[in-house]
Amino acid sequence: MSYHPYDPRMAYDPERRLTDGDVQELKPEGWWGDDGKIARDFKFDTYQAGVDFAVRVAALAEERDHHPDIHIYYRRVRVNYFTHVVGGVTVLDIEGARAVNELWAGVTGA
User: Which of 20, 68, 91, 106 has a CA between 20 and 30 Å from the CA of residue 37?
Assistant: First the structure.
């Protein structure tokens, strides 16, 4: 489900930088951060499982044409979302984080 904030002065703009309050209210479960960046760590039993997940996140990003930073740290993967051109978090980042959470749920069965 997409969240599209409506501000009658600005209309809907998915690339508008969200305020810190918006980010705190909208960020999906498990994610932390503020109006500058949101992030989540995913832990794995093996290095290869983390790499496989990172590849799936990359494929998801390609489908959505909105790309997070992905960092692999042995058996942990960190995904960071922010929109470079606006210097902070936009609705596109929130939606990307939600999509990664759905991917994670599919991987873990949670």
Answer: 106
